[in-house]
Amino acid sequence: MLLVSGLLVWQAFVHKRTNALSMPPSPPSNHWLWGHVLPKEYPFLQIDKWIAEYGPVITLRTGFTKHVQIGRQQALIDIMERQGTVLADRPHAISTSELFAQGASIGFVPAGERIKSMRRALHTYLAPRAAEHYEPLITVHARAFILDLLDNPYDFQEHAKTFSSSLVLQVAYGKDTLTRASDPSVQQVQDQNERLRLVMSPGAYLVDTIPMLKYLPWYARRLKDGFKKDKELFESHLDDIETKMNNGDPNPSFARHLLEHEEQYQLSRIDMAFLAGALFSAGSDTTATGICGILLSLALHQEEQCMVSEEMDRIVGTERVPVFGDEDSLPILRAFIAETIRWRPIAPLALAHKTTADVYWDKYCILAGTTVQGSIWASSRDPDFYSDPEKFDIKRWLTTRAFREDMKFLAFGYGRRACPGQHLANRSLLINTMLVVWSFHLSMSPIKDCDDRLYLSGFPHQRAYDLRFKSRMGSDTLRDAIRRPAILT
């Protein structure tokens, strides 16, 4: 205990000598050795409580390491966005960088030319204009989602996963056949995402405090074995694309783009395999969770659902199916989506960043080399931006006649490490919400109690809610309308 106390005192002494400004305030730790221990279930709720009590930016300690949490919108903009050049790095934690990612996953690649090449390649395929190019493809899969709901509404979660997996597999690998949620490759990437959520939780693995544990063969076997399976899956997909290219297959894909521009991007084969795999794994999980969150929100908020349905009837009517071109004419629907993402964010905690130089904010200094993490959940509860933040209120996103373009919620990460797939995800959420509202009225089972936070823990294996889907125009009429060729403008 004397050794631990001495190390902590030495850290404070070095900090004071380094800079006259102090680190952001720190709540009292709840363990003398491990520091600020977070609960395994909904850890972001505890961070939110500390943010509310101690301020927008706080310092926590995990073992001997201090890290900073940011939980208010303006502080995130001031630090993560405006000073993003010195926050583009990732911290090196043994659990994430060495055991989970082993240097291959873009989410944990450090700052430098390699990450710049990776993001440049992703931007080519996923920038806003590129996402618009995919609208016909998204529409095809979204209409299939509606038909699945019509045939079997009980398995709405599986249908959402089928939509997202089919879409991202076509974008990533050119696969033009339906991919069900039960597909082994989809199950593998869902396991990868569960491992990611686990290692992202501060203090989840003792190896980050006691590094020698990584040499024990039995330690963190799930992370080590999981990486081997991920590597086999992603390399097999890349090999398959190369074989198809050699056989004259014309289907475009992100993996094909990487192989055709290998010299331009200067990425290794394992880098290309995991980069295309990242598009698959991240896109399939987050988009499915986002769609299910919209469905839950519609069922829970009947008054707001009726407002969106009334707008849909007034603008689109029943004679045609809504399309992307209707977006600007549906401000209430857009407000519903925005408020759902704020009310129940897809990812409550963002991936951590690392400062490469001292960062100054207010009267504080965040030292170079510090791990900094944005709490998406806490920022969604920012009372300076969102009055009565626990209330689901779509009117906060509306003026008298239009959607408020000046409102912004940072739901997909920050600065130079923001999620490059956010534009594809947003287009997917938009058209699916349009089609669901046009097709169905949703409600909850009156029997079961509802914990509306279940999707905050990621995409569940089992059905989380008992939702009811009532066709708004009769099943046969709806089926015929959805099956008619889409008019995309």
From TrEMBL:
Entry coiled-coil feature ranges: none
PROSITE patterns named in the record: CYTOCHROME_P450
Keywords carried by this UniProt record: Heme, Iron, Metal-binding, Monooxygenase, Oxidoreductase, Signal
Pathway: Secondary metabolite biosynthesis
Any Pfam family: p450
GO function terms (MF aspect): heme binding; iron ion binding; monooxygenase activity; oxidoreductase activity, acting on paired donors, with incorporation or reduction of molecular oxygen
Cofactor(s) this protein cannot do without: heme
Residues binding heme: 419
Gene3D superfamilies: Cytochrome P450 (1.10.630.10)
Stored InterPro entries: Cyt_P450, Cyt_P450_CS, Cyt_P450_E_grp-I, Cyt_P450_sf, Cytochrome_P450_fung
Signal peptide coordinates: 1-20
Family designation: Belongs to the cytochrome P450 family.
The protein's name in its UniProt record: Cytochrome P450
Species: Coniophora puteana (strain RWD-64-598)
